[in-house]
Write a structure and sequence with these properties.
Number of strands: 14
Helix content: 25-40%
CATH architecture of the largest domain: 3-Layer(aba) Sandwich
Shape: globular
CATH class of the largest domain: Alpha Beta
Length: 327
C-alpha cells in the first residue's frame, strides 16, 4: 500500500511517500515546498506525485489549523483543504485530515530510542494517557487517550489557554503583553515570538533595543538563542532560561489536565535546539512546581522528540490506521 503523507504549515508544505506493509511503514521519498508559492495544496501534491512517478491509494495530512469534519482552513495560509476534493482529483480511496499536533501524536509510536532525549525518567513502566506539547511558531498541544491497550491521539487547543505568571518578572511580562494584545495565552510566551517577547520585556528597563529591531522579526528568536550561548550571564541567556521554565510550567499544566501518567513528549522545532538549557533543570523545576500535585508530576516521564519528521510519520500512520479500521 502506498500512502501520501503531508505536514502542512503556513511556511512549508512537506510531503512524503510511504509504503505500508501490515503494521510497518517505510518512507520512500520526501520533498518540501514553500507554501506561499502555491494557491492551494493541489499544486504541491500534483508536483510531488508527478516527480515520484506513482499514485497512492491513501493520503493523510497534518494541517496547521482546526479540522472541521472533512475540511480545514489553514490558520496562517489562505488555503482551504477539502478531503473529498483531494480524493476525487488524485484518485485516493481515502483522505485523512488531522490537526498538525494530532499528527505529531500519531507519530510518537514511530519514535525510536535514539530519536528522543529524557528530561525526567518518571515511574518505570508508566502507562496511561499521554500528551504532546510543541513550541515552535506557535504552541501546539495534543492528547493521547489510553484505552488499556494503545493510545488514541486527539487534537485540542491547549496552547491558547491563559498564561499563568508567577512572581514579579512574569507579572511584568503579562502586563506588557496585555498592553499589546489584550488577553494573553500561553502561546504568547512559549513560542518563537514568545521568546522575543520575553527578551524584550527584560531589556525594556535597561534601555536596550528590541531584538526584532536589531535582527528582523524572522531572525530575532535565533539571534537571542545565539547570544545566550555566547554570553551565559547576559540578558539573552536570562530570557532563554525563563522561556525554558515557562515551557515546563505549561507542560505541567497540560500533564495535569490530560492526567498524562503515560508521559509528556516535547515536539516542535524549539526543544531540540534548546536541549542543553532544558537539561539544566529550568524546565523540570517548573514542570514539578504544582504544589500538592508534585508527587503525581514526578512519576510522569518527560522526553524531547528529536525526530524532525514526526508529523509526517504521524500523518502516514493515521491514514494507515484508518484503512484498517483501527483509528
Amino acid at each position: 500500500m502506498r500512502i501520501l503523507a503531508g505536514d502542512i504549515g503556513g511556511t512549508t508544505t512537506r510531503l512524503a511517500l510511504f509504503e505500508g506493509r501490515g503494521a510497518r511503514l517505510r518512507k520512500l521519498a520526501e520533498a518540501m515546498f514553500p507554501s506561499r508559492d502555491w494557491p492551494s495544496l493541489d499544486g504541491p501534491v500534483a508536483a510531488f506525485l508527478a516527480d515520484a512517478g506513482t499514485s497512492c491509494s491513501r493520503a493523510g495530512f497534518g494541517l496547521a489549523g482546526p479540522v472541521q469534519g472533512r475540511l480545514v482552513r489553514i490558520t496562517n495560509l489562505p488555503w482551504v483543504v477539502e478531503a473529498d476534493a483531494l480524493a476525487q482529483r488524485f484518485g485516493f480511496e481515502e483522505v485523512a485530515l488531522v490537526n498538525d499536533l494530532e499528527a505529531a501524536a500519531w507519530g510518537i509510536a514511530d519514535v525510536s530510542g535514539d530519536e528522543a532525549r529524557v528530561l525526567q525518567s518518571g515511574r518505570q513502566g508508566a502507562v496511561g494517557n499521554a500528551a504532546v506539547v510543541a513550541a515552535g511558531t506557535g504552541l501546539g498541544v495534543a492528547g493521547m487517550f489510553w484505552d488499556g491497550r494503545r493510545h488514541h491521539p486527539f487534537a485540542c487547543e491547549g496552547g491558547h489557554a491563559g498564561f499563568a505568571p508567577t512572581g514579579g518578572v512574569e507579572l511584568a511580562l503579562l502586563r506588557r503583553l496585555e498592553a499589546a494584545h489584550g488577553r494573553v495565552s500561553w502561546e504568547r510566551v512559549v513560542s518563537g515570538p514568545g521568546l522575543v517577547a520575553i527578551h524584550d520585556a527584560l531589556v525594556a528597563g535597561e534601555g536596550g533595543s528590541p531584538a526584532a529591531d536589531e535582527h528582523g522579526a524572522g531572525d530575532a528568536a535565533a539571534a537571542i538563542a545565539s547570544a545566550a550561548a555566547a554570553d551565559p550571564g547576559g540578558t539573552a541567556a536570562r530570557a532563554v532560561r525563563l522561556f525554558a521554565g515557562l515551557y515546563g510550567a505549561v507542560a505541567g499544566d497540560v500533564a495535569l489536565t490530560m492526567m498524562a501518567s503515560g508521559g509528556v513528549w516535547l515536539g516542535g522545532g524549539i526543544a531540540p535546539k534548546m536541549l542543553a538549557v532544558l537539561e539544566e533543570g529550568w524546565f523540570v523545576d517548573r514542570f514539578l512546581a504544582k504544589g500538592r500535585m508534585r508527587p503525581l508530576l514526578e512519576a510522569i516521564p518527560v522526553r524531547v522528540v528529536l525526530k524532525g519528521d514526526l508529523a509526517l510519520w504521524g500523518a502516514a500512520r493515521c491514514a494507515q490506521r484508518r484503512r484498517s479500521g483501527r483509528a
